[in-house]
Amino acid sequence: MIGNDLIALNSAANIKSFSNKRYLEKSFTEQELAFLNENNYPDLPQILWTIKESAYKAMIKLGYKKSFCPISLEIDTNSIQFNFSIETSIRYMDHLIVAKTFHMSDYIHSIAATNPQELITINFRVHNIKPENTRKQSTLVRQLFISDYALKQAVCVNKVSVRSDHLTYIPSVFYDGLNCNIDLSLSHDDLYIAYAYSNSL
Amino acid sequence: MTKTEKEIKNILIKYAFNKSLVEEAGPNANMVKDLKINSARIVDVVLDVEDAFEIEIDNQNLAKIKTINDLAEIIDAST
User: Fewer Cβ in 10 A, N or C end of chain A?
Assistant: First the structure.
């Protein structure tokens, strides 16, 4: 199962939250807080956040019903190496999830998978939207996925649809009314929308 | 809607893109999915609730919060 998450770095709300000590203490374990203090790397709290939320999104597809409680996901900070893409693992209850994070100038995007082999098969895209469209993020990210997916599969775009389960909100992809059994994850924040999908559901 | 739920809504409105979604929400509205509040803001909501009600919400309870009612139950049990 896969998940993805992104954080817009220029969002005023994010800047405020991630510079608040109480916010960090509510979100990160003692080990992660020590890692933050020891490493003066830009946007590190946001990096850790997207890793955790992408991992959580993968986990809920395994049937976990708990809300997102960031402190309950433990990132293996020893495995983090600062590159353009950061690979790490996350422990959540008795599961180990792997994640890959892309630190861009305006946003951070993480993809995660409950199976390490899945991580390399994930298709994903991040897209910048116009400020007047921030209220339509949810619709736009679905449209972006549908048009990209139809193009890649060479199928009729009008026959592809995305429906979210009314209880779990997990999105599923349908073609001509039939479930395509694609593992899809959608994400958006401020001026950015992103999808990630894997064919191996 | 209880007094606690109304106070929660006053906090949620600060973080909602679409204020009317919060104003019209019932107690069982999911804060992220129905009210479209960014998941990164839920921790902010919890911190504001802690300040407003002078309580502390532990991690166990944090993992239970999905709806306005979930939060109201935790507050009512703590005050």
Answer: C
